[in-house]
Every structure is written in structure tokens, then in C-alpha cells.
Design a protein that fits this description.
The structure holds two protein chains of two kinds.
Chain A: E1 2-9, H1 13-20, E2 25-28, E3 39-46, E4 55-57, E5 61-65, H2 70-75, H3 77-83, H4 86-91, H5 97-100, H6 105-111, H7 117-124, E6 127-131, E7 135-138, H8 139-142, E8 152-158, E9 163-170, E10 177-188, E11 191-199, E12 206-210, H9 220-231, H10 244-265
Parallel strand pairs in A: 1-3, 2-3
Antiparallel strand pairs in A: 4-5, 5-8, 6-7, 6-8, 9-10, 10-11, 11-12
Chain B: E1 2-7, E2 10-15, H1 22-28, E3 47-50, E4 53-56, E5 69-71, H2 77-89, H3 99-112, H4 118-124, H5 136-154
Parallel strand pairs in B: 1-5
Antiparallel strand pairs in B: 1-2, 3-4, 3-5
The chains are: A alpha+beta, B alpha+beta.
């Protein structure tokens, strides 16, 4: 059971940061996951009055405020123009519209949950997180950091000419995923580069980079070999949703499908 | 502490502590259409609109809605009754416990989506569980209701 003694709607990030330094203080996201846990929170800090609920698009980046909802991510036209339906695909299976109107991108990223579709998807892109005290760092670095008392302000996706495909397997609709997979391809410093992000293994998502130049007319067999090599770069575990062996097999299949879809798009 | 907000068009004040959820406040204010089902954000029974958007009142902290507009089924009575007649005509209600949350989300969908197909309707309503009907009657009711809405606009 969650008990909260004080609820504070912060008037500035500075105030939120100061309040959050207390031992039993917590920052609130959408309150969907935290509410299910057991904790005695002395001060709960709400960032919803700080204007962090916007997705700002510039010529070079998308800046997603930490309090943006998953539904905003799903419907954003700019993200659709650049990445097609892939970002929407990564969130549209998460419970229902009401849930996604409430769950925040910041909560999903800060939580670094093993089951997170959002984390898997964002990790495959050129993504950074802006922390109030810790500056701007790569998302891949952030997710492996020890939790601290900093505040996640925004998520920044650097725009580039990359193609993204997202896929996941669930045993039942709206359930937690058995495996999540995002594949990105595009030129990096003039070289064709592939990024593979696989999550819910059931560990949190991890990203793998491969400098592969793959012809569009590659045979199915050879493409499967590439997919197997990529899938072998991750470790897998067993839980009630699937065995490690099953997850490895799923990863090979999802990676191959996404690579095929990207190659066909070119 | 007290929280002040607009409930179905009227300004109200309620007592709440740090961990009081909106669901409890609404029921205490007499909005008994708002039901507590799973309490794990999965069933959609507690759906209300916060500033016009469907949310799960079982997981909204009451103190966080200071100054905001909350709408429950009681606030959209006429529209709910109109859609309810389509549900009844299709035999889409059995125990009816899920209906208030379901109707709130259907009305939100009708406002948000233009001409949704069956798959889009199913996806939008995937956060509303019904353990009696099997959903087919509800889908028929929604399709007929949307046809009716179109005819009304044309006429």
C-alpha cells in the first residue's frame, strides 16, 4: 500500500529538486506504477505545473517534456513524419487510452522498467535525457546509472535520416510484453549503421550497434543470419511469461522482420 | 487539506489527504456512476474525463486536480442515455457494472476519432473490460450509434 503524507505541486524545478533531496521524497509521474507499490512517501512532488507536458520540435531535435503523456507521443504528427507509425506502435498496446492519457514519458524512462516498450523504442534512436542537476546525457548511459535524487526534465531525440521499426510480442493484448524490439538503420559518419534495441528479456532494454551494409535484395536466409547475430548480442532470462530460449527465438524473428521492413522501405 | 475543482460544470470543494484518489472523492460527492473495479488501472470502470480527456480516477490523486474540470457520467446524462438506448437495443448490457466507464470512453472516442473502423474502435476501448458480454453487442451498438450521429449531422 502507498501512503503519502504531503503532496506538493512544485512551482519551479529548483523547488522540486530541493524537496526531492529528502530521504522519503519522491517525484510523481502518472501515478500508475507507484500507486501499485508499497511505500511510505513523506513528500510527493508533482511537476505538472512546470510546463513539462509539451513536445517541442525544432530543426534538429524533438524535446519531449517529462510530463508528456504516452498518448501525446502516440499522436504527435512530427514524430509520425520522421518515424512513420513506429513510435505510436511502441505505445498503442499499453493498456488503454485512459492509461496512456495518464502515464508519462518521464515516468516510463525514469523508472527504467524491464518491461518498458517506451524505453526500448527510445533507446534505439539518437536519444538523450536532460537532468536538472546532471546535465544532458545519452539515454543508454542514463539507464545503467544508479538511481539518484536528480530530476528528469526532458527526453531529447536528435533528428537524423534513420528508419525505425518497432515490434513486440504479448501473450494477451494489453499485457506486459514477452519481448520488445526496435531496429533502426541509417548512415552514421557516412557508414550504414544498424541499431538493435531489445527489452523485456525480461531485463531492461539494451542497445547494440552494427556497421552493416546490407543490400536490399538480400536472400531470406542471409537476412536471418544477420538477425541471429544481432539477437546473439543480448542475454535473455526466464520468467512466467517465457523462457530465455523462447525469448532468444522471438528476438531473432522480430529483428529479421524489422530489418526486412526497413530494407523494403528504402 | 481541501481541493477545489469543477465537477460536471459546478465548482465543488472536497476534503482530501495526500493519498486520497479522485475516485473516492467523486463517490463521496454523490457521483456513484464512478465504480471501483480492479484498482490496478486495467479495467476502465473508474473512467472519468479530466479536462475532457479520459483518465482512470482510481489512480489520479485528488489533490492534483485542483482547479481542473472533471466530468462523470452524471455530467453527460443526455448523451449517455442516448448511447445507452443503443446498448440496450443490441442486448449489450448484462450486469451493467462496466457501463458507466465504458460509456464515458465511447463518448470520448466519438469526440476524438473521425470515422473509426472496427479495429480502431477495439483499440480505443481496449482499456475497458467487460466480463459478461463478449463485446460483440457493444461493438454493434457503437457502430449503430455512430451511424445515427452521422445521420443527425446530415439532417
Amino acid at each position: 500500500m502507498l501512503t503519502i503524507n504531503n503532496y506538493v505541486k512544485a512551482k519551479s524545478l529548483e523547488e522540486a529538486y530541493e524537496l526531492n533531496q529528502a530521504r522519503n521524497a519522491r517525484i510523481m509521474g502518472g501515478m500508475l506504477w507507484m500507486r501499485l507499490g508499497n511505500a511510505r512517501v513523506q513528500t510527493l512532488i508533482d511537476l505538472s505545473d512546470l510546463g513539462l507536458d509539451q513536445i517541442e520540435e525544432t530543426a534538429h531535435v524533438f524535446r519531449i517534456g517529462a510530463m508528456c503523456t504516452l498518448r501525446q507521443l502516440e499522436l504527435h504528427e512530427g514524430l509520425k513524419v520522421l518515424y512513420g507509425d513506429s513510435i505510436a506502435e511502441s505505445v498503442r498496446h499499453i493498456v488503454g487510452v485512459q492509461f496512456r492519457n495518464q502515464a508519462t514519458v518521464g515516468g516510463s524512462v525514469y523508472g527504467r522498467f524491464g518491461f518498458s516498450d517506451v524505453l526500448t523504442c527510445l533507446l534505439s534512436l539518437d536519444t538523450f535525457v536532460e537532468l536538472y542537476n546532471g546535465g544532458t546525457i545519452r539515454l543508454s548511459e542514463f539507464i545503467n546509472r544508479k538511481r539518484d535524487k536528480d530530476i528528469l526534465v526532458s527526453i531529447i531525440i536528435r533528428k537524423s535520416n534513420r528508419r525505425l521499426k518497432y515490434d513486440a510480442v504479448r501473450r494477451a493484448k494489453t499485457d506486459f510484453p514477452v519481448l520488445t524490439c526496435a531496429v533502426v538503420a541509417g548512415p552514421v559518419h557516412g557508414k550504414e549503421t544498424w541499431y538493435f534495441s531489445v527489452g523485456a528479456r525480461p531485463m531492461k532494454a539494451k542497445v547494440l550497434e552494427k556497421k552493416w551494409s546490407i543490400p536490399r535484395d538480400i536472400s531470406d536466409g542471409l537476412l536471418m543470419d544477420y538477425a541471429k547475430e544481432a539477437a546473439a548480442g543480448f542475454d535473455y532470462g526466464t520468467n512466467m511469461r517465457g523462457s530465455a530460449e523462447y525469448r532468444r527465438h522471438l528476438a531473432e524473428v522480430l529483428i529479421r522482420r524489422s530489418m526486412h521492413a526497413i530494407l523494403m522501405e528504402e | 487539506m481541501t481541493v477545489e475543482f469543477v465537477l460536471n460544470g459546478k465548482r465543488v470543494t472536497a476534503e482530501a489527504t495526500g493519498d486520497t484518489v479522485l475516485l473516492d472523492v467523486l463517490r463521496n460527492l454523490g457521483c456513484h456512476s464512478v465504480k471501483c473495479g480492479c484498482e490496478t488501472t486495467n479495467c476502465g470502470l473508474c473512467t472519468v474525463w479530466v479536462n475532457g480527456k479520459s483518465r482512470l480516477s482510481c489512480s489520479v490523486l485528488a489533490l492534483s486536480i485542483e482547479g481542473q474540470e472533471i466530468t462523470t457520467l452524471e455530467g453527460v446524462k443526455e448523451k449517455a442515455e442516448e448511447f445507452g438506448s443503443f446498448l440496450a437495443a443490441e442486448g449489450a448490457e448484462q450486469c451493467g457494472f462496466c457501463s458507466p466507464g465504458f460509456i464515458m470512453n465511447v463518448l470520448a472516442m466519438v469526440r476524438e476519432l473521425k470515422n473509426p473502423n472496427i479495429e480502431e474502435i477495439k483499440e480505443y476501448l481496449s482499456g475497458n473490460l467487460c466480463r459478461c458480454t463478449g463485446y460483440m453487442g457493444q461493438l454493434r451498438a457503437i457502430c449503430k450509434y455512430m451511424e445515427h450521429m452521422k445521420e443527425e449531422v446530415h439532417s
